[in-house]
Write a structure and sequence with these properties.
- By secondary structure, the chain is mostly beta strands.
- 6% of the residues lie in helices and 28% in strands.
- The chain is elongated, with a radius of gyration of 39 Å.
- 44% of the residues are buried.
């Protein structure tokens, strides 16, 4: 019997779940069943052709069952750009994100729920919140006003607006509860707002200072606010001349921008206020001190932003959420403590001087949270942190040290967290991360040495970019990847030992490292990104790993000190600008695997005396040998003249450089376009005989071409570059074979 009961219950649940997935249409509206047990549905879309007025029903019938409409789903009316009036049902419990987001012409919302439905962030467009009238049932004015707080005009049905009593103008908010709000009427001088107003013989309690009531009132000298006021509405005193204000203890709401751009100097937030909304005290350029009430737990966007004389914020023990730009550009702010804050949003303390202690409750600091904060010197972040956003501590001019949690919940994936801190010298990283995020220490100009922890496997890129005092970096064995521009602009860095574990280097990794003298590239590396050594003007030694097959353009562009380069044997092409403006280069070995040269490869190599191109080369790009003023010999071992154009060689090279080609190719070069313009074309010497069939060697004046893997030594046992040899005798070793060769 017990098993049967469980089976029946399970079948009912399954049936309910099946039905809950069903959708249907009724009178131009689409619905989704939320609960077959409670008989509730959600409105998901309006299928009518942009009606100007919509009356939503309390109930709708589907398959003979009456369902209550309790929810309006995401984007339900987002396609209706003509809707002017909407009537919401009394059964409504919630409205989801974006439900009316694009209904920009919506001006009247008639609500009938006895309790304000829950609304997620931004179900209505900003223009609707500012311009629409929200009509609500009797006795619900404050409930809707508080919970739908972004609406500026909330009235109960059957009320009048704009009535005058004793020279003051009011909007009637509730006839049932006899509530009114003061509205605008060109006020001047001293304004004394009464606790009650008599209208048509009836006494009403003054509970609101309405939106824009004193907006732009530059002739007021004081305003007395009665104890009855619960709400100061949007922009009520914005840009007024109000010099001081005493907020009543019973005040419940300070709405958006209500004291924005006023000359207030101090303010005390009453005890019952829980939220200081967006822009409430923004741009108060005379404000020096704020005291937060014991109930304040939320500071809205730019609540006190751009108040450059604000020095102290007292209270704040209950604050858990500090939104974007709350104290942005409050350049005098030094004192503010929030011991229970959980979330600090973007730019909240940017460009302040606050001396902040990071509490154990803190979980996240968003984008630019403390950027340009002059009050931070040594920062210790709590173990509770889930997020440190991009540039959260960037450009803090006095920060010297930061300690991240030993075991970070967040993976520090954001970029530029500490960039441009001119005094930062010490960083303690979490022990459970494997990558240092993008631009972590970029522009930290006081950093002289840095040891990357042994558990780090990857530098995401730009890690030390523009660290102009950085002289040495110790990289751990086990590091596998270094992202682009990691050391770019490190003008004091003389050398870097790259561990053999590295398999990937990003582009411009050493760009503008003007003191860099040597680099040995790891053997597992197969490619170099663009501009790897671009403008490394002191570089004189690079040792390539054997597996590099590709290089990005501008690899050695502007390396004016490098004299000798032996390129790796697996390289397939020389990309654009490889050696452009390498003004000291006098020897380069190009392996037989290279098949093409890009544009301007040797452009500006003014000391280079000779170049040997192997037999695989089939194309040479534009301006490749321009301004090579010392080029005496160009050896080309390809049988078929490589493709060139009229700009590949300048007139000086064509006139002064000797082109050396193979016997069997001489006729082809002397008749080929551009090549035939060389004034001097001579023949190289082929030294391939029957006995050398296993080790073919091509000999030319000052060079020889040998098989891949062959090694060339002089008679003193020194290994030589076969592409640049003096006249004499050399030993060539290739596997088990050894040959003695004369180079003319």
């Amino acid at each position: 019997m017990q098993k049967s009961k469980y089976l029946i219950a399970a079948l009912m649940t399954l049936g309910g779940l099946t039905l809950s997935a069903q959708t249907f249409q009724s009178e131009g509206l689409s619905y989704k069943v939320l609960s077959a047990i409670e008989h509730t549905v959600q409105l998901t879309a309006s299928n009518a052709a942009n009606p100007t007025e919509v009356n939503l029903p309390d109930t709708v019938v589907y398959e003979g069952i009456k369902y209550a409409l309790t929810s309006i789903g995401e984007n339900a009316f987002s396609n209706n750009n003509k809707l002017v009036t909407v009537t919401l049902p009394a059964t409504l419990r919630d409205i989801q994100y974006g439900a009316f987001f694009k209904t920009l012409k919506l001006r009247t919302i008639n609500a009938h729920s006895p309790k304000a439905p829950d609304i997620e962030a931004s179900p209505f467009a900003t223009t609707v919140l500012a311009g629409a009238t929200l009509n609500v049932p009797a006795g619900t004015w404050f409930d809707y006003q508080y919970n739908w707080r972004r609406f500026q005009r909330v009235y109960e049905y059957g009320t009048k607006q704009g009535v005058v009593a004793d020279g003051l103008k009011y909007n009637i908010l509730s006839e049932q509860d006899r509530l009114v709000g003061l509205t605008g009427n060109s006020y001047t001088g001293d304004v004394n707002i009464p606790a009650t107003a008599t209208i048509d013989g009836k006494e009403y309690k003054v509970v609101e200072i309405g939106c824009y009531a004193f907006d732009g009132a530059t002739s007021i000298t004081s305003v007395t606010i009665p104890a009855t006021v619960l709400v100061i509405n949007n922009y009520a005193f914005r840009k007024s001349s109000l010099p001081a204000v005493t907020l009543p203890q019973g005040l419940r709401m300070l709405k958006e921008g209500c004291f924005e751009y006023t000359p207030l100097t101090t303010v005390t937030i009453p005890q019952r206020i829980q939220r200081v909304e967006n822009l409430v005290f923004a741009y108060c350029d005379k404000m020096t001190e704020v005291t937060l009430g014991d109930s304040v737990n939320y500071l809205g966007n730019s609540a006190f932003g751009s108040s450059p004389k604000l020095q102290k914020v007292h209270g704040g023990d209950k604050v858990t959420l500090i939104m974007e730009s709350v104290f942005l550009n409050d350049t005098s702010l030094t004192t503010a403590a929030f011991p229970n804050v959980v979330t600090i949003k973007g730019a909240a303390f940017r460009n302040t001087a606050v001396k902040f202690t990071f509490p154990k409750s803190l979980k996240s600091i968003d984008l630019q949270g403390f950027m340009e904060c002059r009050g931070l010197t040594e920062v210790v972040l709590p173990d509770t942190m889930d997020l440190v956003g991009s540039t959260a501590f960037a450009s803090c001019p006095n920060m010297t040290k930061i300690t991240f949690p030993k075991v970070a919940k967040c993976k520090l994936a954001s970029s530029g967290i500490l960039q441009n801190n001119p005094k930062l010298t010490e960083v303690v990283l979490p022990q459970n991360i494997t990558a240092i995020p993008m631009s972590l220490l970029a522009g930290c100009t006081a950093l002289t040495t840095f040891t990357v922890p042994s558990y780090i496997k990857e530098l995401k890129g730009s890690t030390f970019m523009r660290c102009t005092a950085l002289k040495s970096v110790k990289l751990p064995e086990g590091l596998t990847a270094i992202g682009g521009a990691t050391f770019s602009g490190c003008s004091a860095l003389t050398g870097v030992d790259l561990p053999e574990s590295i398999t990937s280097l990003g582009g411009t990794i050493f760009l503008n490292c003007t003191a860099l003298r040597y680099v040995k590239l790891p053997s597992k590396l197969t490619a170099l990104g663009a501009g790897t050594f671009n403008n490394c003007t002191a570089l004189d030694s690079v040792t390539f790993g054997p597996n590099i097959a590709t290089m990005g353009q501008s690899t050695f562009f502007g390396c004016s000190n490098i004299k000798r380069v032996i390129l790796p044997e697996k390289l397939t092409m020389l990309p654009n600008f490889t050696f452009k403006n390498c003004t000291s280069l006098d020897s380069v070995y190009i392996p037989r695997t290279v098949a093409s040269l890009g544009n301007q490869v040797f452009n500006g190599c003014s000391k280079l005396p000779s170049v040997t191109l192997r037999s695989n080369v089939s194309k040479i790009g534009t301006l490749c040998f321009v301004s090579c003023t010392n080029l005496k010999t160009l050896r080309v071992n390809a049988i078929t003249p490589p493709t060139v154009d009229s700009t590949t060689f300048d007139a000086d090279v064509l006139a002064k450089t000797t082109l050396v080609v193979r016997h069997e190719a001489a006729s082809a070069y002397r008749t080929a376009d551009v090549w035939k313009q060389f004034n001097s074309i001579t023949l190289g010497v082929n030294a391939i005989s029957a006995e050398d069939a296993e080790m073919p060697i091509t000999i030319m004046p000052g060079a020889m071409e040998v098989p891949d893997g062959a090694e060339v030594y002089n008679l003193y046992g020194m290994r030589m570059n076969p592409a640049s040899l003096a006249k004499g005798i050399y030993i060539v070793r290739y596997g088990r074979l050894t040959r003695k060769v004369m180079v003319p």
